[in-house]
Amino acid sequence: MTWIPRAVKLRVDPSDPAQFSNTLVRVATMREPRLFVNCEHLDCLRTHGVGHLASQLLLLHHGGARVRLYNVSPTLFRTLHLLRLDTVFEVLQASGKHSDEASHRTATA
């Protein structure tokens, strides 16, 4: 029997500690979870900043989750790239471009 990892779509809002802790518990009980995070309307970016978002996503990553960020604004994409977090998470810009393509284009420009 072949096991297929589950892809989960959760509302991940690190600015809400109770909801985020529930997400961490749910991820911890899953086997190789994959999380898709829509970055288009993250409240925590406005209220807590990119550092807070990054630390919370790293908690999910260290908990065993594969994190995919999508609808990432150009500013957030550049920040994640400068922090080298695009090597930890799969990052898709709002236009649908993959982080590897954009990183290669930035390195050759």
Can you tell me about this structure?
This protein is of the alpha/beta class and 109 residues long. It is built from 5 helices and 4 strands, in the order βαβααβαβα. The chain has a 4-stranded parallel β-sheet with strand order 1-2-3-4. β3, α4 (74-82) and β4 form a beta-alpha-beta unit.
Rounded to the nearest angstrom, the radius of gyration is 14 Å
Mean pLDDT: 76
Secondary-structure class = alpha/beta
Strand content: 15-25%
What portion of residues is helical?
Answer: 40-55%
Number of helices: 5
Largest sheet: 4 strands, parallel
Low-confidence stretches: 101-109
Order of strands across the main sheet: 1-2-3-4
Number of strands: 4
| Cα distance spanning the termini | 47 Å
| Overall geometry | globular
Could you spell the SSE succession in H and E letters?
EHEHHEHEH
Descriptive terms for the model:
109 residues; globular; 5 helices; disordered C terminus; four-stranded parallel β-sheet; alpha/beta
Quick take:
By secondary structure, this protein is of the alpha/beta class.
What's the layout of helices and strands?
Blueprint: E1 7-8, H1 17-28, E2 34-38, H2 43-47, H3 50-62, E3 66-72, H4 74-82, E4 90-93, H5 99-108
Parallel strand pairs: 1-2, 2-3, 3-4
